[in-house]
Amino acid sequence: MTFGALPHRHASLVAIAVLLTLPVSALAADEPENDDGLSVEGSVRARVERIEEEFRPSKLPDETIWSSRTLVKAEYSTGPVRLAGELLDARAYGIDPGSTASTSTVNVIEPIQAYAAFDLGDVADGWNTRLQAGRFTMKYGSGRLVTRVGFSNVPTSFTGTRVDLASASGDKISAFWTMPQERLPRDAASIRDNEFELDREGSDLQFFGAYYQTRLDGIGATLDLYGYGLTEKDRSDRATRNRHLFTPGLRLARKPSEGTFDFDFEAAYQSGTIRTSKADNAARQDVSAWMLHAEVGHALRGQAGLRIAAVFDAGSGDSQGGDYTRFDPLFGGRRGTFGQTANFGPLSYSNIVSPGLLVSAKPNKRVDGSASVRLAWLQTASDSFAKTGVSDPLGNAGRFAGAQFEASVGYWVVPKVVRLSLGGAYLSKGRFLEDAVNAPATGDTRYIVSDVTVSF
């Protein structure tokens, strides 16, 4: 179902009305008369972003984006059954043709969750079992390959079923089969006008897998093992590259703790097949790609809550001829690894080699912040660099992409209710981002983001 484009003035009024009425109705439903197990929670976030000297081709060189995001989630529990639904309303204002705003920024009045969960108790010996069916969001392990994003406006939803088992000793097993939501509308004009269209899912895109986590008490760490499968095929109104991917991986991690060293090592390999283009008669290639994350940190003693970490991330890029070797990050999040994303975010686990240094602090319950610096190279000189869309097919622009500096700070004005955030980033372009054949003729990129979030 699609509504026609509203004039910008009217679209803004509709957005404001939605943002005002959704929280009011939710709060009214969340009054003490909920002996039946009903609970309602949500948040409203207003954000402004400014990017100057854009690094992506064919985009506005300078742009300011105002956006809003409202989330309302209701749950009803009765015995071993839990019913849940969550509504998202994400909009952007004042955007022009050539904007970086996309379906990650705008998704108007979308039910991102609507599921039933059943606590089946001790079905397997010593394992508590939970079954979930419907539409839901997911996060596994580090979230680098499957997560519910929070920094960007629009999280990915999945329609399907999953089963989760937990042992008394803390081990976890999960298996799922889903159809990821395709965010609609996709065209730039509809996104600019905040048009409403329900997302879709179908058997043409399926995502499934299994995840296992066990505790290694001897070293105070956890070990994750996983395997994710993705299948894709054309449909009448949309051509694809017919991805058929299998991504096994493992992660060994120890959480930060004051006065001790922590670590996080993760690696994944990707195999399968993909077409060389979206053309129906395009040749099919074998896939052989990989990603790697390594992090060693130390949380200092003291009231500042200071942690310093050395990080290294890499993802394979595609070389001409032979297997397809560009790593696909699936449905992962980038904020926790690569810094500011939203309508910035040049870095990802595709064709990158990036060492860096991260410093974070949490001096009290109200204030937290972080800062990082990263250098970045292309893993393959002839492939597109990370999320930039910049490429040099002959490899004449070299491999050095540049350096990214970023920082953010958050402050709870009212703990757990009102939060202010401010962040910024600076991308010092290296030779590749300056000399590649489709690199925009702009200088170093500057980005700032500020938002206020009210939770209820």
UniProtKB/TrEMBL annotation:
Keywords: Signal. Coiled coil: none annotated. InterPro entries: Alginate_export_dom (IPR025388), Alginate_Permeability_Chnl (IPR053728). Residues 38-439 form the Alginate export domain. Residues 1-28 form the signal peptide. This is Alginate export family protein. It comes from Alteriqipengyuania halimionae.
